Amino acid sequence: MSITLLGGLGAAAPPGAAAAPEPAQKYLVFYKDGGSAAAQRAAEAAGGTVQGRDDKLGYLIVRASDPERIGADPSVIGVTLDRPIGKIADVPATSGVRPAEHVGAAEHARSAAKHVRSAQGGDPLSGRQWDMKMIGATPAGSYAKARGSHKVLVGVIDTGVDGRHPDIAPNFNRALSRNFVVDQPTDDNGKTLDGPCEHKGCKDPADVDDDGHGTHVASTIGSPINGIGVSGVAPDVSLVNLRAGTDSGFFFLKPTMDALEYAADVGVDVVNMSFYVDPWTFNCASNPSDTNREQLEQRAILEGMRRAVKYARAHGVTLVSAIGNEGLDLGKVKTDSSSPDFPKGVEKKRSVDNTCLNVPAELDGVISVSSVGPGGSKASYSDYGVEQTDIAAPGGDMFDGGTDIKGSSREILAAAPENVMRAKGLIDAAGKPKTSSVIRDCHHGTCAYYQYMEGTSMAAPHVTGVAALIIGRFGKPGKGGLQMDPAQVERLLYATATPKGCPVPRTYRYGTGESQVCEGPTAKNGFFGHGLVDAARAATAAP
């Protein structure tokens, strides 16, 4: 089924022409508190049919052809198109038991870990992980005091996680992992979106990542110390794949809400969100530059994500998000020319202001992470803002000339799925890397791939990993294993961060020629928030 989120919907008919009736499509209708019945009546009065509901987050799923009429009812806050997120039952990729060959590899890796720790003090590629050294996630630092616990469930809301990667499999919780999206080969205009479906019903198993982004994030958080590849910030935690991103990298509202709600319900302790919710980079509740329908959609995204974040946090989920990669002061954005980004080619330039939010990064209750390079400066691409930046972490920066680290080594090295490396032509038929940005590491009869990447997407998982260390130390027995009040996790993250003041002068000029201005004191500023996340201090701090 082809669908359009915005595109041609709502376009005015030529003068004197009768508007063609719109086809019925599925919408999410968010209602005010106590407004469920009224919203249902409004939907039915507009010719819609209620096909489902989520009372936890307060919305109806309505098949209708006149969303604006529904949205005009005073009981309704916002209305947005829903993309299909599943055609088959949502079950784990397997019964929750790893296939025999992967169980063996995992156990072999675990048995090798003691030898590796005593002989090398880390994993074979640890010497390339300048990011771990920067935050004290080393054998002499946090690893000696706190490595997390398998009772700590870390949710990775992303494009998927390669649960069979040798440097993720030992910590991958297949039984709890879920995929909330269905691949869509093409968009409404027939342009390639996710490409051909690889699995029945176009739904990938819950241990597959066809993009590589989510696997990289998961590896930074929790790759084990197992004698191969790299080590994560919290090498003993459990990684839960909560896939809400498509193969093509889009994150739409309902899969994202579903992932957050599921995380809350099964006892996940902390989630990493290295994305923004499509199709709007900035969501404005009442922007005169937008049509009525566009305003309804953005209000729905704002309200839906606020409710999902509130629900997750109330159920003990600490929420960590990348701040964004446009090099923008998010408190002073004036224009947005990248939205809506779906389907392709419908972007428009519009005026925005500080009431227009990038979500989830700018939502209350979400820890927003900026990025630094190996020299410690804020990465040139990292968004910032004195109101928006909560904490900083290493995310890499190819333009950071502040150290003797060169080229792609200035980026973050973490696990990469072999299937993605092959699909992107980054390794040859024999498996040999064709670029210095990809590393193949072979030990104990097992080979695996790793990739250098940069972005606030790479910074956020460092904070997520440190949050997991804190929960492992101070969490109490609860649903899923351990539980800890997110407010306390957040307090300790900030209290243990290394304070980092604005550069002098405050107008920082990057090698790209770009100038950015840092505002605020050392205790809390627009570049680094409360400071640089510190795993070593978090591993020893008092509660």
From TrEMBL:
Active site as annotated: 158, 213, 457
Keyword field: Hydrolase, Protease, Serine protease
Stored InterPro entries: Peptidase_S8/S53_dom, Peptidase_S8/S53_dom_sf, Peptidase_S8_Asp-AS, Peptidase_S8_His-AS, Peptidase_S8_Ser-AS, Peptidase_S8_subtilisin-like, Peptidase_S8_subtilisin-rel
Domain Peptidase S8/S53 per the UniProt entry, residue ranges: 150-507
One Pfam match: Peptidase_S8
PANTHER family: CEREVISIN-RELATED, PEPTIDASE S8
Similarity field: Belongs to the peptidase S8 family.
Protein name: S8 family serine peptidase
Annotated organism of origin: Microbispora bryophytorum subsp. camponoti
